[in-house]
Structures
1.
Amino acid sequence: MEEYPHTTVTSLDERESAIPQLTRSIDSPKTLLQTKASPGNMGHSQACSPSDIFADIFADPIATNAPPSNIKIQNEHPVPRKGVASHTPIHTNKFYVNFFLGDQTAPAYAHPYSLHWVGGKAPTGSYGLAISHVEDNQRVYGEQKTGGAVAWYLNPVGIQSLVLGAKGLSRDTILSLDNLTSFSAHVHLRKDSKTSPAVSFPVVQGMGFVTGLYSGTLPTIQTGVCFKTVTRATKDPKPDVAKFKFVLEDGRTWVIYAHKTKGYQLDLQVVNNRYAEAKNPFYGSIQVSKDPGNREAILDEASGIYATGVKLKGMVSGTKGTYSFEFDRTGHTQGQLLMFALPHHTSSFDDLTKKAMTTVRLRTTTKGMATGVLCNKWTMVENRLPVRMNFAPFDLDKGPVSMLSEEAKKVIRIVAQKEISQNMTEQAVLDSMYFSGKVCVRRGDSGRALSMLTVCRHWENSP
């Protein structure tokens, strides 16, 4: 193996390293908007009674009628549909939006893995899809506060632990997307606009493996961290599934599984400590996973299997709510699908789903520890739903407080009028990656924050 300097990419992008600061204040509103009568019936506002039961609360839309006439409609979105093949409306603020925003190279967080299209950038210069996972010791923390809390923390970006691509991808490569849903998207890399995908990725939130699908191209595997050792297992975990172990120079172990559907099995040639490629065209799936330590048996069980989407279903009976994720499984017929659950999922798992939890655990950037689950469907149960909540102030124990004192109503009216009269554009459109899109807490003439804290104080004193 040709030797290169050992380079581990763990530093933060310089643009992300500065602590966000709001450098200017925004004036209070000079005029107040006046209240206006409702434009008409805007749907049911009555809360569900505890006895209501829904077959599937996510099956039907809340309303299909047009918005009120005083709400303007803009048919063209200011952001271009870069690389999006479908013509249906696109969800905003989804985990995959960086695949079609800007130069399409910012990360998408599927948790626990993050993905980004390299787009020819250093250190690999690849045009494949980079896979990264951040450990605790790679985070950068701010000053420690009283009690042990820190002021802020940052996760490094741009680490190209492994890059899954195909021979022939170059500066003409096109990244496109289709099958966009709330939980998934399919990402395709083409040599140019006229060719079929060289490799496709079914990207699903919580996926146990990052899966690349090949139909006769030559797979490539690159790294910005450098290979330390690359070995192939002498015994295949399943029929038609080959297993490779990549130990990187940062000490982390990654496992790659290749499930061939026809033709030759994946046979990798390590060209140097940054680049490996297949010796023959490959048909099937190549899956990348990180081994948190002595968990290969579980990964073997799930190898060759992947999800392409998620079906969400839910029902409510009284104050008990049940919802489920049913994953669209495909791939190898032997074994179980591996998906990662977040803490708020596992804390609500029913008994059957709990039995499918494994000891495979990986840290996420902001959502705690993710736990691998071996099954096609999760069921979560919530036993204390606030089904009586409506637009009145609400207490989890007392329920809705529909009777407010005149003093409380007066305070709410004053605060609400001042809040909606602010210049939202001036507050939200700022030259800051941190503060843009947010509205800061305003202060009144007396210096008190005009927030719901003020309202709650009056609510607590109401009869």
2.
Amino acid sequence: MKTFIPYRPLTGRLITFAISTFAAVVLGALVFRPTQAMAQQSNAPQRPGPEVQGRGPVSAPAIRIGDLVKEAERSNPEIAAAYHGWQAATNVPKQAAAFPETQVSVQQFSVGSPRPFAGFSNSDFAYIGIGASQDLPWPGKRGLRGKVAELEASSLREDSEAVRRRVIEALKLAYFRLAYVQQTLGILQRNDELLNQIQQIVEARYRVGQGNQQDVLRAQLQHTKILEVIATNRQEEGQLQAQLKQILNRPQTSPDIVAGPLTPTFLLYTDAQLLERVRDQNPDVRARQQLVQRQEAQVELAHKDFRPDFMTSYVYQHTASQFRDYYMATFGIRLPNRGRQKAELAEAVENRERAKREREVELQRVLSEVQQQYVLVRTSEERLNIYKGGLIPQADATFRAGMAAYQANRQDFETLLGNFLDVLNLDLDYRRELAEHESALARLERLTGVTLP
């Protein structure tokens, strides 16, 4: 018998058991000519074609990925938290660019005694005064501080968009994997039912002396194996359900999600077009660019801080009615500490250079990832076309020809079984390839901002 080599540790065993089951059922229906007792126990099972989709009968309708994306955008707490963080930051520029607080003071000057208002009526030195003072930054400083805060808010806006895209990507990856697992699980469930039928056929043949004990034991073993694989896939499906409900902010006790059948989405962009979009539409790259501009404004502000700030105040002082009032205006200059300002300027310059290098690192990382995903998508498209236009129909034609030859005793059992295994193997490989193709497109959507139907 041909040996099937799985692509993955988990799905490989799943595919192997599913293939073995279908092969046993078909061969039991085609080869064995059961007696009247055996005919009463089974109906001739049919091999599913390459277009079998879904899980079989389900209690809930399939949910489209577009509907789940909209739900995630409304309900996901991570997206909401990032959005509110950005909204909070939009209020900082107005604070940073505002004038310093005005100080209002009330004075009372006593003469001859610490008692309040002592000497107020008989001394022209005692008085009650009221005044106000205001700090005046050097022209341009307030605008630069507001610009720094505004660029910081713009960076947080891009971070918020990056969070939204990452959440949507995680949702799509989990959804596509769930669709693949549910389709494969449906095949296993149908195979388990057919395996029960073939097991009854083998046991009936053995009872009438037309089979051997090895066939009975093999059928029982395959039945046990497929039950184990069904349990394994149930476990993965449950984990994916929990992951999707977390992303959608649904209760874990809510009804399970049924994914719809996957269909290929073909990429209509060239690699040059996708790479060009990275600079303008990737939120991580744009956030780095905003941080570079912020550091440039910070350097300009450090230069401005070498300029002095000013302070002005005005005080009105009132004494008794027989004495004249006093009026006092003050103007001061706050001189900067040049040593401290030089260190601040040096720090700002180094932070600007660091931000530029980090922007370049992020840009190159994203460009590399886009190119890798583009190559994966194009290669996957070629494989999907090969599966649908070549491998699957060729394998199916080979199996049908072999089946006719086997019925005419011109082909042995092992060759027919191998041909049938090729058909089912390619069918399941096609589904796996389709899920990986859609996942790669979801990554490209996050990286480039393109919207695919």
3.
Amino acid sequence: MTQLFLNLLYLLILTLLSPWLLWRAVRTGRYRRDLSAKLLGCGPVPNPSSKPVAWFHGVSVGEIHLLVTIVAALHKRHPDWLLVVSSTTDTGLAEARSRFADLSIIPFPFDFSWACAATFNAVRPTVVVLAESELWPNFLATAARLKVPVVVANARMSPRSFARLSKVAALARRLLFRHISAFAVQSTDYAERLRLLGVPDSKLTVTGSVKYDGAVGDRDTPKGRELALVLGIKSPLPLTSLSPGERGTGTIILLAGSTHPPEEEILLRVFAKLRSQFPQLRLLLVPRHPDRFAEVAALVAASGLPFARRSQLTQPLAEMPAVVLLDSVGELGAAWGLADLGYTGGSLDGKRGGQSMIEPAGYGVPTVFGPHVWNFRDAARRLIDAGGALMVQDERELEMALARLIADATERERMGTAARQLVREQQGATERTLDVIDLVSRQIAHRGAKPQRNL
């Protein structure tokens, strides 16, 4: 009865939104790719030897990047398992196909009962691993009916999500949490919020954040060298400071990663002021969402600053212009390896809770972010306490903090070293997460339960 109600509710919402979805599909090409597989379920995933199947899911590009570390580690631990990866968004699927070229990649089904049933029947998973979130009631109910354990890896519960779910805690327990076998949680704060929502202690394991394990921090990579060549980035001179007589002797790259509106406008204003004082400064601007690339390009053009779009570069630049808009998918990691200092987005306007500052920390990039970082509160606090990052409250403080770091190469190096050391100290969450996955898989096997093959 619950699934029937949810199906009818989804159909009603889909009908009401159909004019807008159609307009978006025509304008951007979104929602059209893999539509039949999302609505009806994907085709069979080949498994001729009937191997155990681990189904990993990441909603979009960020979660797919998170899964890279877990998937590689599980393959090493269980080389005989078949691994399947799904994603919800078009960009997430494209990134999954790029990152996991030798694995089966499938679209995540819409939360209609028939689509979930058909996809489970096609994949036949032994265990499902969800990256951070993406909890859908029909999907979880299908897994429970087929006795397939579900693990939420790198689980988090932000203050905003906790406040929303607290209002419907009983419903969340019934439709979501009771169907999840285990939460591998990033921090004790997140675990406590899940506990207050009614998740039993037996399902909670604090593993730490897998993102620390994924922050490898190797700046000298083929992808990094290729990106540097394309963007016209020359190796900077080993400056110890930037006194007025030394300015202009080397390029300093500020990377603003995973930005949201109105951060691009703020950053462009701040950058224009700083560049008049530090002419060797360059800005690599990386919006969070690909569907905003054209919008941000228009903002940069309106600023009057010389700039280039990564997507339009067919030949390497002779010299990097003032601003490069990195309007590509999958190159942010390589770009962090080129940065001298950074800003992580989604942290100034109070609406989004920040983007990860762990990846730049792993590269030894001294990073600045705004006060709204509830999605990464623990990582932000640790980095600030270690002296590897700075929190600013507004545009004025952002300009002051960046100016100080640009002018002091010694301070940049000190902060970068502290950030990288912290990341190394926090690593190990991936192996603890695999232990959780193994535990729930063994429990199912011990009870003699096997996933049903047909519904």
4.
Amino acid sequence: MDFSYVAYGKDKKLVKGKLSATNQTAAAKLLNYGGYQVLSIKPISSFINLERLRNIFTQVNPKEVTMFSRQLALLLESGTDIVASLELLQGQVTNRTLRRVIGEVVADIRGGSSLSAALKKHPRVFPQMYSRAIAAGERGGNLEIVLRQMAEFIERRILTEKRIKNALTYPVIVAIVAVIVVALMVAFVLPTFTELYSSFGAEQPLATTIFLSISNWFIDYGLYVLIGLVVVVIAAVVYIKTPAGSYQWSKISLRLPVIGRILILSELSRACRTISLLFRVGLPIPEVLTMASQGTSNKVVSGALDEVRRELIRGQGLSKPMSGNPVFLPLMVQMAGVGEGTGNLDQTLTTVAESYEMEADDKTTAAVGLIQPIMTIAIGLVVAFIALSLVSAMYSMYGEISK
């Protein structure tokens, strides 16, 4: 938020200006820290705050958070204090939103706040798990290590999402191109061909009759079908946004053939890495499970982790309640039990996460490899049917011409 101020400088001259801070108290402390004696400070209000709108629509790339974490860890290890480190990073950051957030974090720390509490105020940039891990690092005196671990965690998540997107890019592009080509043929080629065919009065072959009937049906009712599909999609999205709908969709997605296995492996690997990281930095297991539950997008997995947390609080341990829930795969249950017995829960769950990630990658690659030939065959059949319809009709017209 922006403030206008009037103050005396060190040379006793009157100074007027503007500055950004989280609140009026923080703004006054910033000025006092700079050696100014504040006379008045007021928030700047405007009907349209362009800076605020820009911050809303400008996202902070997770890669920038990763780089910020690594650089901050390096500066702290070199002996630079936290405020000086953040100010140095603020001057190097190119993203306006992240630069503003770092400035507000600096202001909060100068006002007496801890780094984790200051980061917690910006959940769109630093998720709750990030701020909780930083808080554990502050308590344990290993903040630099925690920052590096969070950077590695975010990097692995980015890499996993990138692999999935890259794997699905080719099939999606092929599907879009195929739909566009067929739509252009139906919209432009077919009407011209139909007029030419009708002018000769030739007998229609069966393939041509079927093709023309399907095309005419889509021309007559295609708009209504499109509107109906849009309504159904919107209704489905609205329902999925509700708690009951979100749970049902999560349940259905995990039961899908091929895709369901990939989804459960991805969710469990993410949960294992979250538990491993937060356990390593020193958070208590119940709080770790809460963070892991909040970090998953699948409501079934989230509910299963919540149930494990409740049983853990009752004294049932970690692996025993997992074994009674089919959501948790056998390897995760077994390795959780080994980790509990040896005290190396973070290492065993990291091993599980790596195993599940490898299996998910293999199954994703296999699924994409299966999708590509299926799409090629489907597109080939459609093109062959269209070509057969047109060619058979042309031969029929030639027969009429030769009579």
